[in-house]
Specification:
- By secondary structure, the protein is of the alpha+beta class.
- The longest helix is centred in the N-terminal third of the chain and has 25 residues.
- The protein binds FE2/S2 (inorganic) cluster.
């Protein structure tokens, strides 16, 4: 079994720390305010600046350091098994538009890499969706056919570069793997060079839509803008109940070095074994490549993450003997109930507010696509895939009802059931652990640090009141309802919550 690494943190963040950007302290007037500096927000801001708009990006934490800084950074139009499903549920034309929109976004990014001379470890590789279980071969054949019909260079294959046999795979050639932060930090620099503004540690708390849009920030500064883009992964402003159509999930990642000769030479994903995803990247050590393995998906705030990391590390060691794991981190995605991202106007009455969310595990191509689509909408052009991604599309009872109802039942179960769970006394919480306890008639989230000090905060998530749970491997409080995350002192790590968990006495 391969040893779990001691470095807990994203390889992408460690190898591209990036400069600090200012916090917004004074009122601002711009054409477009973009909330969120991940791949979708920065892609939109950059495109809008190229189109001559005055743009400000407002990021609650650091640029490209949230979900985008923790991705596996596969830039591909092959999204596991989406094409056969799209063809059946929304028709062949929708599948074609999906493939075209994602592929054009990738090629647009390729052109930017060339034009701006961005050094971001850009490598062309095939993307594979594979299965070791022979029972899934028909599914893979159907996906290969649907992807080809949709216009992708796709085929069904039985040979891959993986060091173990597969029953079959869909291969799409000429896709991309890259270093997401090196790409996005360069995009942010170019945005600033074009007169755009990028602010960090600037949390947006309020949005008014009458007349020009007005954003209130935590520092007291306001931003007035004709158009606003909400690109905060899970939308912090949700005026169309989008949260009912998005299920958050986390996935664990381990990375380490392998001999370059063992590089499987592609990007792989399988729905087998609670998902496994594999890619490599250049490494500074001569003769080595970085192996990145992802899997063990779970709903935030549920499951045993330590055991998940152990399983993933063991899988990496078993399938890539000799791998020396150096990094471990986790990533978070929002799955839309009908598998298609939600990109466009924020709600049915919206005229100048837009949203980009629900990219599933495919936020790189999806975020870049969103940047281009939103720019088209904001600058008054039409787009062939506007309707496909329109967040206001109606819930289809046939295609969405099962996953929609399942998600709602899950949220209800957490909202009610988590309050009925027995809780330990505060003395029972050992050092390095956290638990929800009862104190003064309320539920309190208590973390005991290694020195034995307790850190107590309200266990009620500030988004919509579900109870948070402790993720021991990542030392964070997580909300299972919509995926908000907080540090052990209650500070927001990830939305949709924007306010911290309140301090409590125990
Ligand atoms: Fe919605 Fe916690 S994230 S209630």
């Amino acid at each position: 079994m391969s040893e779990l690494p001691h470095v807990r943190g994203s390889y992408w963040l460690q190898t591209a720390p990036g400069p600090s950007r200012p916090t917004l302290e004074e009122d601002l007037h711009v054409d477009v305010a973009v909330i969120g500096a991940g791949v979708a927000g920065l892609s939109a801001a950059h495109e809008l600046a190229r189109a001559g708009r005055q743009v400000a990006v407002l990021e609650a934490h650091r640029v490209a350091a949230g979900v985008t800084g923790h991705t596996t950074a596969k830039l591909t139009a092959l999204h596991t098994l989406i094409y056969d499903r799209l063809r059946r549920t929304r028709g062949p034309e929708a599948a074609r538009l999906y493939a075209r929109s994602q592929s054009e976004a990738i090629e647009h990014a390729a052109a930017l890499v060339d034009e701006l001379g961005i050094e971001c470890e850009w490598e062309r590789r095939s993307a594979f969706t594979y299965a070791c279980d022979a029972g899934r071969v028909d599914e893979l054949r159907a996906e290969a056919e649907a992807a080809r019909e949709a216009g992708l260079p796709a085929s069904f294959v039985t040979e891959t570069g993986l060091p173990y046999p597969v029953a079959g795979a869909v291969e799409v050639t000429d896709q991309v793997q890259f270093h997401p932060r090196k790409y996005l930090l360069a995009l942010a620099d170019d945005l600033v060079a074009r007169g755009g503004q990028v602010y960090e540690n600037t949390t947006v708390l309020g949005l008014e839509e009458d007349g020009p849009c007005r954003l209130a920030t935590a520092t007291g500064a306001t931003v007035t803008a004709r158009d606003v883009v909400v690109a905060t992964h899970y939308p912090v402003f949700d005026r169309a109940l989008l949260f009912t159509r998005l299920s958050p999930r986390r996935e664990l990642v381990v990375a380490g070095t392998i001999d370059a000769g063992r590089d499987p030479g592609g990007m792989y994903i399988t729905p087998d074994e609670n998902t496994r995803s594999v890619r490599t990247a250049p490494h500074q050590e001569p003769g080595k490549r970085l192996l990145v393995v992802t899997g063990e998906r779970f709903t935030p705030g549920t499951g045993d993450t330590r055991a998940g990391f152990d399983r993933l590390a063991a899988w990496a060691g078993e399938h890539f003997p000799g791998v020396a794991l150096t990094h471990a981190w986790a990533t978070q995605d929002n799955d839309p109930t009908d598998t298609v991202p939600l990109v466009g106007l924020l709600h049915p009455g919206a005229r100048h507010t837009y949203v980009a969310t629900g990219f599933g595990g495919w936020g790189m191509s999806g975020g870049m696509m969103a940047g281009r689509l939103l720019t088209a909408l904001i600058t008054g052009q039409d787009s062939p895939w506007r309707e496909l991604y329109d967040p206001r599309r109606l819930l289809s009872t046939v295609r969405e009802a099962p996953s929609f109802l399942k998600h709602q039942a899950q949220v209800a179960r957490h909202f009610v059931g988590d309050r009925l769970r027995p809780v330990p006394p505060v003395e029972a919480v050992p050092p390095g652990e956290g638990a929800v306890v009862r104190a003064g008639g309320d539920r309190v989230a208590v973390y005991r640090d290694e020195e034995g000090r307790t850190h107590a905060v309200s266990a009620r998530c500030t988004h919509m009141g579900c109870l948070v749970s402790f993720n021991a491997a990542e030392r964070a409080w997580e909300c299972p309802c919509h995926g908000s995350r907080f540090d052990t002192d209650g500070k927001v790590i990830q939305g949709p919550a924007t306010r911290p968990l309140e301090p409590r006495e125990v």
